[in-house]
Amino acid sequence: MSRPVPMPDHAVTHPHGSFNGTTVFLLHGAFGAKEYWRAQIQALARSGYRVVAWDAPGYGLSPLPEGFGIDLCAQALARLIDKEGGPRNVVMGHSMGGFIAQRAWVYAPERIQAYVLSATSAAFGKSDGDFQREFVRARVAPLDAGRSLPEHAPGMLRRMMGQGATGPAVDLVISTVSLMREDTFRAAVAAIASYEGRSLLSSLNVPVLCIAGELDTTAPAAVMEKMAAKIAGAEFVALQGVGHFGWAEAPERFNGVVLDFLARRLHATV
To answer: Whose CB among 53, 58, 255, 270 lies 3.0–4.6 Å from 64's, allowing a Cys bridge?
Structure first.
């Protein structure tokens, strides 16, 4: 018997002024929730976009579903796009959210008109590889040793950012992740470590923007550049001086790149 796919919690922000016909779906990473997209929601809404920011299944107020994983989340995203989508839909996914965004192409290719993929990849590699084992160990070992997530999260997140990253958006990421439930945190780490989606890249036939952080060691810029090269017509941008959370470490630069891409690739001929 197949598992029921939950409808995720989400918030809709309407454009400030005239609507340009495009809805942007914001998908947070493994460590996060919809609240940390504040700067992106404001920038997109000011530019005429309708914005839907979700809490993935198991995040926010929703309980962790049985069988949590990238595929289950992708099915939930397809349901959300059916419910809230418009004539043009852009899916913007960060880190794990980028995995979910790509996997959703299997379920809703006709409803997705563009992608923005931030600090992500097409696969995490073999679950028993050295990088994967160290990724999981570094994130869950402090919890196994008795530390709480509010104690563990700030240091973990700052190590994923560029040195000296500061500002309201950085503080918002840290406070948001510190409020996560531990069961969701652990399930997300496991889901990331087992993801494989490289075969999907050649089928993406819509505009795609891949944004990396120059200093990111979790989703290195070189990996994202190779990923972009396997997607026909994809664009690649590396933000200098930032790590894994470019949209929080340098929100104005990140938002500028995204808005320029959407204006050129979706609206130039509309």
So the answer is: 58
* pLDDT range class, residue 237, cuts 50, 70, 90: very high
Copy the structure tokens of residue 126. Answer: 């073999």
The residue among 60, 105, 52, 49 whose CA lies nearest residue 78 is 105
Q: Radius of gyration (Cα) for the chain, nearest Å?
A: 17
Superfamily of domain 9-265 in CATH is Alpha/Beta hydrolase fold, catalytic domain (3.40.50.1820)
Mutual angle of helices 149-160 and 168-178, in 10-degree steps: 140
Which residue's structure tokens are 């075969």? 199
> Which helix (DSSP H) or strand (DSSP E) does residue 229 occupy?
helix 221-229
Token couple for 147: 């530390």
Which pairs with CB-CB distance under 8 Å and at least 24 residues apart come from 167-171?
167/248, 167/249, 167/251, 169/36, 169/38, 169/39, 169/247, 169/248, 169/249, 169/251, 170/245, 170/248, 170/249
The model's pTM is: 0.94
DSSP state, 59? S
Domain-wise residue ranges, the chain: 9-265
